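Aggregate trends can hide what the representation actually does to any particular protein. The sequence in question and its structure tokens are set out directly beneath this paragraph.
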Amino acid sequence: MSDVVPAEAERLLTSEPVIAHLATCVDDRPHVAPVWYHYADGVVEVLTTGRKLANVRANPRVAISIQKDVAGRTEWMVTLKGTATVVEDEAAMRAATRRINSKYGADEEAWSGNTLVRIDVGSATYRTY
């Protein structure tokens, strides 16, 4: 359990495979893109490449927004802000790929060109509706 993320928010984050939106920023311009994620104990793992990865390398301050909707109505939302670290360790990358891809029903080898990014959560807000 995280000291930063409330227990109810942790329950929501781990309850089902919903899409997160990762917000990065470089040159004072925001960039938001959907990502699959894994959350545990105050750390979010995402696998990414391209613009998102380049932005994280340039500026590690990020935010993640996760929201569950049913029939166009929001049931809950969680917003996390934190510091991202690019993880170059191959064993850690394989383990994270297994966790994330299995959560979303993808083959373990899918999107093998991605890089692991770990986000240490510094603040969290959530709301249920």
Remarks:
- The chain has a mean pLDDT of 95.
